[in-house]
Amino acid sequence: SGRYNPHAIEEQWQARWTTDGLYTFHDDPSKPAHYALTMFPYPSGNLHMGHWYAYVAPDARARWMRMNGHNVLFPMGFDAFGLPAENAAIKRNLDPRKWTYQNIADMTVQFKRMGTMIDWSRQFNTCDPEYYRWNQWFFIEMFRRGIAYKKGGLVNWCPKDQTVLANEQVVDGRCERCGSVVERRELNQWYLKITDYADELLDFGDADMPERVRLMQQNWIGKSVGAEVDFPTPAGVETVFTTRPDTIMGATFLVLAPEHKKVAELTTPEQQAEVQRYIEAAGQKTDVDRQSATEKTGVFTGSYATHPVSGHQLPIWIADYVLVTYGTGSIMAVPAHDSRDFEFARTYGLEIREVIRPDGAEPMDVDAAVEAYSGEGQLVNSGEFDGLPGGKASIGAVIERLGALGVARAKTTYRLRDWLVSRQRYWGTPIPIVYCPEHGAQPVPDDQLPVRLPDDVAFTPTGQSPLKLDPTFRHTTCPVCGGPAERDTDTMDTFVDSSWYMYRFLNPHLETAPVDAEATRRYMPIDLYTGGIEHAILHLLYSRFWTRVMRDLGLTEHSEPFKVVRNQGIILGPDQEKMSKSRGNVIDPDDLVREYGADTVRAYLMFIAPWEVGGPWDPSGINGPAKWLGRVYALYSDEVSVGPKESTSEADLRYAVHSTLSRVSADFGRLSFNTIISSLMELTNTLVKAKRSPLYGGPVWAEALSIFVRMLAPVVPHLAEELWQQQGEQSSVHLAAWPQVDQQAATRDTVTIGVQVSGKVRGQVQISRTATQAEAMAAARAEESVARFLEGKDTIKEIYVPGKIINIVVSK
Ligand code: ANZ
After folding, report:
1. Which residues are ATP-binding (predicted)?
2. Is the pLDDT of residue 421 over 70?
3. Ligand 1 binding pocket mutation candidate from 224, 244, 414 (most atoms within 8 A of CB)
C-alpha cells in the first residue's frame, strides 16, 4: 500500500461515489428523518476558506447522523439573484445571467472537491425560472390576502446602487452592501405585512437558537407597551406614543419629528424661516446620527398644545431626536424623567416638572438638577394621581383614568416595519402584477407564470427600473378585460428567494406546487440549520415570517422553520484579520487541496478552533493533521515498524477505543468538532503502540481498526473509505453503522483513589471499582506512604466512599 497519497484516493472515491449514487437522497420511511442544512452560498465566483469552514463540519455532522441510522437530507444550491451579479456584469460588460451560471459551474466543481455528502441532484439556483416562478406564486397569494400591498411613503434609497432598501438593509444609516449613506425618498413601493406577525415572531416556540440571535431578533422587533395620549393643538388633536403614561402630569412641552405632517400647519409666520432651515438640516442626517447626537437641537413652532388633564398650554417644538418612523412621530416631553427631554429642556430653557419622587426624598430642585430621574418613587405634582407609585405599577391605573376622560388608550408599538420588497434593479424576480387603466393592479394568472426575466436588457442602474426600458416586457394585456396594460417593472428583494428555499429542496422539481406537502410534513422543520451570525436578523426573521405565511396558506403545519440554529465562527487570516483580497491575507482552499488533499483540509478546519468560535488560520498548523493522516494510513498497512515492543493489555486497548468512541459520539452531538479530532489523534497514538504489541493481528486489534475507521468516516471521508475497503469490506464505509460503545469496556474496572490519614492525603491506591470496605482498607494500609502514618496509632474510624476517597482517622 505504500505511503498516504490523498490525491489518488480522493479523486478515485469521489468518482466512485458519484457513479454509485451514494449520496442521492431517497426517502426511507423506515428510518427517522433528519434534515441538515447549511445556508446556501451566493455565486460570487470562488469558494473561499469561509465556505469550507461553514460546510465541512456540518457535512461531518450529517454523515454521522446518517451512520446513526437517520435518513439524512443534506442539500445545496445557490442564492443566485442580486446586485453583485449586476455590478460585476456592468464592470466587465457581461450578461449577469452568464456571469452567474458560469460562477455556479465553477463553484460546484470546487464544492465537489470538499468530498461532502451533498445530493447534487437536488441542486437549484434561485435565478432558475422554475424556482422564481414560485416566488411569484407566493407573491400573488399574499397579494390576494392583503399581505403584499403597495403604498407610498418615505423609503430608504441607496444613491450608489440606485434602488430602495428594506430597513433591515440599512446599517448605521448606510447601505449594508456598498456603504453609501442612505437617503430618504418618497416612493410608491410593495411591502409584505410582516408586522401582522410581530407578536408571533417574538415567540420562538421550541426553536433552539443561540441566545444572541434571539436577542437580536427581539430587539429588531422592538415591542413597547404603553399608551397613546391625545393633545389638542391648533392643527387638530395630536396623538403621542409613550411608554410612561404615569408621567403625564410632568409633560411640559410636545416635540414633533421635523418631517411630521402637522409641522407646516403649526408653524407660525414668525417661526417659518427658522423651522424651514432646521427641517432641511435634519434631512441631511441619518437616523443614527440623529439619535446619538450628544447635543439635542430643535426649533419652536410658535404653537401650543393643551394638556389633556391640566389644561396647561404646552409649547410645541420640532427636534430631530424624535423619529418620524416610530410611534406617531411625536412625543410628550417629560424632562424631569427622560434624559433626552431633560437635555433638550436645559438647552432651550423649557419647564421641568418633577412628578416622581423617591420615597423620603426632598423635592427635586429643578433649577439645579443635572440629570433626569428615571428611578422609582411616588407620583407628586400629579393632582388626582398623587401618592400612586410611579412606574410600572401605576401605568395601568393611569391609562384607565385617562381612558375614562377619553384622552388616552393602551397601545403597543413595534420597531419592526413592513418588509419593503420592490427593487429598481434587473437581476431579480419580476413582480407578477399588471396595471390596467380600467381594473387597477391585477395579479398575473397562474398559467402565465413564470413572468420571465427578459434577456438583453440595458440594466445599468439609472434609478428607474431597467425592465421599464424594455417595451416588450413592459406592455401587456389586462388579465381581466384584455385591454392594454403595463407590467410592474420592479424586481423582488433577494431575501424573498432565501426565505423559503429550504422547503424547495424537499422536492425541487415539483411542477404543481411550491412545496411537497408530504415531504414537508416529514422533513421540516430543519433539524439543524447552520450559517453565519450575519444572518441573525434578516434572513432568519424573514424565513420565520415566510413559514408562518405558508402555514396560513395551508402549506405547512408548523410555525418555525428551524428546530436548531447554530452559527459557525470566522476563520481569520494568519494576521488575525478578516481574510480579504485587499488585505492580501487570503488562503485559497484549492491550493491547500492541491498540496495536502481535501481530507487534511477538512480535518484541520475542524481542529483549528471550537467551531462556533473560529480563529486565525495558522499556516504551519496544517502540518499536524497532514502528518496525523499519514500515521493513520500507516496503521492499516501490513508494514510493522521495527523498534521496542510495547506491552498493551486487551482491556487497555478496548478501553482506549470505546471510551474514545463514547466521547466522539457525545462531541458530534454537541458540535464539538475540535475535540473530536484531538480524541482521534490521541487514539492514533495508542493504536501505533498497540501495533507494536502482541495484540497486533489479533481480534481486539481488528475490532480497534474497524471501529477507528468508522469514527474517521464523517471527518475524513475519502481516507476512511480507502482504509475500509482495503480491509476487504465490499460496500461503502458511509453506509456502515456508527459503532456501538461497549459500556463495560469504556469504563475502567479499576479506579485510583486518594487515601487520607486523619483528613490529610498521604497516598493513593488502585483498586477495583467495586472493592468492598475490607478490600479497600487492606489496599490502603499496604501502601507504604500511608502505613508510615499509621504506625503506633489506634484507628478511631475508617471511611470509604467507593470510587472517591478513603480516610483512616487515627489517635493523636
Ligand atoms: C414620555 C416619557 C417619559 C417617555 C419618560 C419615556 C420616559 P421605546 O421604549 O423605545 O418604545 N418616543 C416615542 N416616540 C418616539 C419617536 N418617534 N422618536 C423618539 N422618541 C420617541 O421608547 C418609547 C419612548 O420614547 C416614549 O415614552 C417616548 O418618550 C419616546 F419618563 O414618553 B416617552
Report:
1. 581
2. yes
3. 244
